[in-house]
Amino acid sequence: MCGIAGIIDFQNNSNSIDTVRSMLQSISYRGPDECGIYHSASATMGNVRLSIIDLVSGQQPLSDLTDRYWIIFNGEIFNFKELRQELEEDGSKLRTQSDTEVLVQLYARYGKQCLSKLNGQFAFAIWDKNKQELFIARDRVGIRPLFYNITNGVFSFASEIKSLFQQKSIARALLPESLSQVYTFWTTITPNTAFKNINELSPGHYLIYSRKGLSIEKYWDLNFNDRYGNLTFNDAIEQFNELLSSAVRLRLRADVEVAAYLSGGIDSSATVRYIKEIEPGVLNTFSIGFEDKVFDESKYQKEAVKYLKTNHKSIYCSSSDIAKYFPKVVWHSEIPVTRTAPTPMMILSKLVRDNNIKVVITGEGSDEMLAGYNIFREAKIRRFWASQPGSQLRPLLLKKLYPDIPHLRNASTNILKMFFGYKLDDTDNPFYSHLLRWNNSNHIKKHFSSSLKDDLAEYSPFDALSGRLPSGFDSWDPLAKSQWLETTIFMSGYLLSSQGDRMAMANSVEGRYPFLDYRIIELCAGLPPDYKLKGLNEKFLLKKLMENRIPESIIKRPKQPYRAPISSVFMSADAPEYVKEMISDSYIKKVGIFNNETLSPLLNKIEKTGNASEVDNMVLAAVISTHLLHYQFIENHNEEFQTGELKNLKIIEDMP
Questions:
Q1: pLDDT on residue 340
Q2: Does 130 share its domain with 252?
Q3: Could you tell me where the DSSP H helices lie in 487-572?
Q4: pLDDT at position 643, please?
Q5: Is residue 656 assigned to a domain?
Q6: 346-365 pLDDT, tens per residue?
């Protein structure tokens, strides 16, 4: 895993080495082992490397056999050994054992068609010095990040936005339309980011930049057409088993130790079980617990550890820990967040790194692929209820989904109707499954300042989303529609970013996700819906597959969404000083994003009563994270979390 950055300037590229060096220093935690820069008359590209495969000879930038193509690469190509064999049988003689060289040689041979051959998680850039053309591609579901900017005819790109901001020519400002998107969808809709004129390359896309300008194309899309509808359930289990075993096996490829997260849920328990079957022996696993028992899953973690016989280390997270690390979370996320949930993931990755481990296998993706989230079951119940909206019994089914939320667990029918009845009968809406969640997020906008409301008066975030719906979307079954929304918006923009790549790489740790192997994604997308969500039994296929292979208590346990405390973090008597500053009347007025007159009563209520609804908690996290983002990136250009150290820097000058 690595960080990459580069500049293409066809007018004056003479000083770009120093700029790219600075860009790499700002993300040096992504690659603490070594660093390299390629410099030519028009292109300067660099890489900071976290050495995992071919520790000796895999340093970047690296060229193909002809020295025409130069690559910088963030990620892993898990099937590189098979692709290497294909190249060698076709006459190629590679100089290293790295997947990076396999990738650049594949591009030299196949061009953009090489993308269909890759099983991996990646963002890479290849400079064709003959054609004076840059090619950048991002993996199918956006596991690895890539951002770019064009200012004054100069194209620059990087793994993180803070790297782009090392160029003084790039202005820093939050984008109002993006704030509207974040406070609807929890993330932006690509190519938008939180910042003006900073774009994100969408998952499953590539771009080409040359003297002719910029072009962007899609090479893969998540498609829920019914390709496997004739599979019997037993055949589906067999295929899924083979693919998951293969996906785990490929993700164990490394020249360093590979560990795993073991959260106490079925997903991580399943991946750990496959690891133990493939490579029997000592496996290091890691988990995080909470001092607040409402959020804690330690009981199930201990059961999984005992059953699977792993060498386990865990750490407990308190509200004060979350408060302490939250500014660093925002700095690495580079986007406002409405949850504190990323913070424990950062603390967990630090535990991993403190144990000298660089790679962890995790269970992300299972909930999206196999309909594990409550939002899928919630939508199914709401549709069932909508067919008889006056029913007093049907809304009671919703109590089954949230046994961990007291005010819902004990709610009356009338309260359930009030909470879950939003646009109940709008079942033809393409976003039906997510309307309730997005409406709850939208409450944050009630606290926007009058000037921001004026800026957004003619803007709807749904316009950006509507234009992204794939062909055939209207004909998909309801579960497929909700899975597509969850996967392409929330998973890529929030889960794999603010809780995935950014929190792990902040501590120089690479996460690997077997459930996001594209073969598994395509199989699950084509399965009948009741193989995934049978009645209200989520992840039905996986549960059947793992019978007698992981603890029965974990298979049968109620779904507990991963959450972390918010109001107790920020409104406690010993909350850090920055919290008071970020929600102070003076700072609210100074930044001008939120309305002090509506926020103050809400904040006072939370502080005095100690009670906050889910919506109140989102508002609180949103205000603090947005103000931290403004403080760190706009106001002070704060760099307190950067290390800035580049190891073993090598500069390759390729000048005429």
A1: 96
A2: no
A3: 502-505, 518-525, 529-532, 540-545, 552-556, 567-570
A4: 61
A5: no
A6: 999 999 999 999 999 999 99
Instruction: State pLDDT tens for residues 283-328.
Output: 999 999 998 888 888 999 999 999 999 999 999 999 999 999 999 9
d(CA 153, CA 643): 30
Residue 58 Cα distances to 10, 146, 232, 285, angstroms: 29, 21, 45, 28
* Model confidence pLDDT, tens digit, residues 28-40: 999 999 999 999 9
Alpha-carbon distance of 579 to 631, in angstroms, equals: 12
pLDDT at position 227: 78
Under a CB-based contact definition with an 8 Å cutoff, are residues 349 and 506 in contact? yes
Three-state DSSP state, 101: helix
Buried b (16+ CB within 10 A) or exposed e, 312-344: bbbbebebebbbebbbbbbbbbbbbbbbbbbbb
Decide: helix, strand or coil at residue 499: helix
36 and 146 inside one domain = yes
Number of structural domains found in the chain: 3
Residues 548 and 590 grouped into a single domain: no
Asked whether the CA dihedral 346, 348, 354, 356 is positive or negative, the reply is negative
- Do 278 and 308 fall into the same domain? yes
CATH code assigned at 272: 3.40.50.620
Residue type, 101: E
Evaluate whether residue 427 is within a structural domain: no
547 and 595 share a domain?
A: no
Task: Tell which of 527, 556, 585 closes a domain.
Answer: 556
Residue 435 CA from chain centroid, whole number: 22
- How far apart (Å, rounded) are the C-alpha atoms in residues 453 and 29? 38
CA within 13 Å, CB half, 136: 30
Is the Cβ–Cβ distance between 564 and 295 less than 8 Å? yes
Report angle CA 85, 218, 206 to the nearest 5 degrees. 60
Strand extents, DSSP E, 174-229: 199-200, 205-210, 213-218
Q: How far apart are CA 103 and CA 86, in angstroms?
A: 12
State the residue for tokens 């500014």. Answer: 327
146 and 245 both lie in a single domain: no
User: Where does a domain end: 556, 576, 601?
Assistant: 556
Q: Does residue 319 sit in the same domain as residue 266?
A: yes
Residue 72 · residue 61 · CB < 8 Å: yes
Range of the domain at 336: 233-370+492-556
pLDDT tens digits along 55-75? 888 899 999 999 999 999 999
Are the CB atoms for 620 and 567 separated by under 8 Å? yes
Q: What's the chain's average pLDDT?
A: 94
Residue 261 lies in a domain: yes
Give CA–CA dist 379/386, Å, rounded. Answer: 10
Q: Is residue 13 included in any domain, yes or no? A: yes
**Do residues 460 and 452 touch, judged by C-beta distance below 8 A?**
no
**Main-chain dihedrals φ then ψ at residue 3, nearest 5 degrees:** -125, 145
**pLDDT, tens only, 135-160:** 999 999 999 999 999 999 999 999 99
What distances in angstroms separate CA 265 from CA 34, 400, 556, 562, 649, one per listed residue? 36, 18, 10, 10, 42
620 with 503, same domain: the answer is no
Indicate if the pLDDT at residue 82 is higher than 80.
Answer: yes
Instruction: Say which CATH number the domain at 66 has.
Output: 3.60.20.10
